[in-house]
Amino acid sequence: MKIIIHGGFFSESDQSQEVKTAKQNSLKNIAQKAFEYLKTNSAFDTAAYAVSLLEDDELYNAGTGSQIQSDGIIRMSAAVMDGETQKLSGVINIQDVKNPVLVAKHLLNEDDRVLGGNGAKNYATAHGFENFSTEIPQRRKEYEEKLQNGGKGTVGCVAMDSNGKLAAATSTGGKGFEIPGRISDSATVAGNYANEFCAVSCTGVGEDIVSNATAAKIVTRVVDGMSLKNAFDKTFEELKKIDGFAGAIAIDKDGTLYHQDSHPTMAFASFDGTDFTVFS
Question: Is 60 exceeded by the pLDDT of residue 273?
């Protein structure tokens, strides 16, 4: 059983040591909670659970604390993918729900598994997800001052359960001040992908991640026999050709944990029941 999570990127120049320490403590705490949950639950359920905890923490740009788009509205996206069934479900540009990743999870058994905008919100309401504002005062202040905060990003989790099953979940509040209707990578196979061989969750600039098909490439290369490290290296070399900004976390079928980013520093933590690794 293994867990690796990420909390997006932040710039050392933009963030205080206090914020860095808070993120380290938060990621360690969430990784540990998720690992305890994993002991009695599947990788799929755990990935969604871990991301819901990240969504609930205002330190991250997902769920509560999401960025505000150029028209003053928060729209969020999230997806989960079960490595065993290879089913992905997601929501795109959903508004006014506390945990987009849990709505995405609920969609897994539907025939229509990726919903956007009003359709996603109507589905959430019909299935008991209460109306909830994810705006925090800091985000409103940033929006009103037309400032972009580089210290927040997409969140994600990759999990391997006791049966060796893999899953990935990813959630984002967007990049801030984008054109309404913009779609990120998080609810696509470029940003969130899993099968029986490997699972990957990405963060960074969605357009770059989609252009590079980052998560799907990494997983496909592992399926084709590459080591996880080599699959990452090749995929990130291709990302360089478009000057792409991205980070990714992964676990392969052998339980190998891996992470890489194109620009420092992606906030991440991993836990295998004994050893923690937390970004520094």
Answer: yes
- Domain regions of the chain by residue span: 2-66+79-86+148-278
Q: Specify the 3-state DSSP secondary structure of 5.
A: strand
Report how far Cα 196 is from the mean position of its chain's Cα atoms. Answer: 19
CATH architecture of structural domain 2-66+79-86+148-278: 4-Layer Sandwich (3.60)
Q: What is the residue whose two structure tokens read 């755990």?
A: 46
Give the separation between CA 154 and CA 51, rounded to whole angstroms.
Answer: 10
State residue 11's pLDDT score.
Answer: 57
Task: Examine the residue annotation and report whether 203 is marked as an active-site residue of this protein.
Answer: no
Q: Of 46, 134, 154, 170, which one is the catalytic site residue?
A: 154
DSSP calls for 204-250: E-HHHHHHHTHHHHHHHHHHTT--HHHHHHHHHHHHHTTT--EEEEE
Quote the pLDDT of residue 9.
87
Among left, alpha and beta (phi > 0; psi -120 to 50; other), residue 69 is beta
Is residue 240 a contact partner of residue 262, using CB atoms and an 8 Å limit? yes
Residue position matching structure tokens 């592992």: 222
User: What does the pLDDT read at residue 265?
Assistant: 85
| Whole-number Å distance between alpha carbons of 197 and 221 | 10
- DSSP-based three-state secondary structure for 262: coil
Residue 123 has pLDDT above 90, yes or no: yes
> Which contiguous run of DSSP H or E holds residue 167?
strand 166-172
Over residues 244-256, the mean pLDDT reads 97
Greatest Cα-to-Cα distance within the chain, rounded to the nearest angstrom: 50
| Residue 150: both structure tokens together | 């580089």
pLDDT over 60 at 148, yes or no: no
Alpha-carbon distance of 76 to 192, in angstroms, equals: 15
Res 94: pLDDT: 98
- Region 236-256: mean pLDDT is 97
